[in-house]
Amino acid sequence: MDNRFATAFVIACVLSLISTIYMAASIGTDFWYEYRSPVQENSSDLNKSIWDEFISDEADEKTYNDALFRYNGTMGLWRRCITIPKNMHWYSPPERTESFDVVTKCVSFTLTEQFMEKFVDPGNHNSGIDLLRTYLWRCQFLLPFVSLGLMCFGALIGLCACICRSLYPTIATGILHLLAGLCTLGSVSCYVAGIELLHQKLELPDNVSGEFGWSFCLACVSAPLQFMASALFIWAAHTNRKEYTLMKAYRVA
């Protein structure tokens, strides 16, 4: 094997490993989107009811999004989290001191919630199904797992190529990484579109801001790494095969 191809193969493997780690971390963390709002210091009956509804299994889209807006919420692909005062009272607590303890509470999305229909008016089941937001949500949930699976399958083929001491099978690895990159890019695009459509229907309060979090950024970085790894795998395999064919033809001649 020529040193050029071996070097390209090693670099592609490193890029593939980094993108896999980034994608796995992105899927497993809860910071795809973050809301920033003033900390709610008192634990009034209203606040307590919002918290109880947030952790309820029957919380609809509007209910948990209102809580996310109000309590510095974060969203992942699997979980939603809010930041609330550590000690809750039925009365308003004393004035805030220098330190104010808060705790993060998270609730996982069930599979039923992941595949549940989204409504034109969030929270209003009589407003009709919003097909666009429904399928965007499902795609943003499924595509990252498809991407991760394709990369793992590609890594298995690459391992077989090393055992066989041949670069040619890595063409399949490159194609799988290309498909994985497209899935990751599609997931990111679906998530951005879904968030924008949600905020058109549920406007953020005046004192609340939102931004994409570091989990989302990891997914964004993972996609170009997958494309670069794909290009290197395909180039190394194709060029090595071409040179081998020319060399074989030369020897025959």
From TrEMBL:
Name where it's found: Cell junction, Tight junction; Cell membrane
Q: What is this protein called?
A: Claudin domain-containing protein 1
Q: What is the stated purpose of this protein?
A: Plays a role in negatively regulating the permeability of cells to small molecules.
Per the record, membrane topology reads: Multi-pass membrane protein
Tell me the InterPro entries matching this sequence: CLDN1, PMP22/EMP/MP20/Claudin
TM ranges are 141-164, 176-200, 212-237
Per UniProt, the keywords (alphabetical) are:
Cell junction, Cell membrane, Glycoprotein, Membrane, Tight junction, Transmembrane, Transmembrane helix
Task: List the record's Gene Ontology CC terms alphabetically.
Answer: bicellular tight junction; plasma membrane
Q: Which one Pfam family would you cite for this protein?
A: Claudin_2
- Where is the major localization of this protein? other
Source domain of life is Eukaryota
Tell me its family: Belongs to the PMP-22/EMP/MP20 family.
Signal peptide extent: none
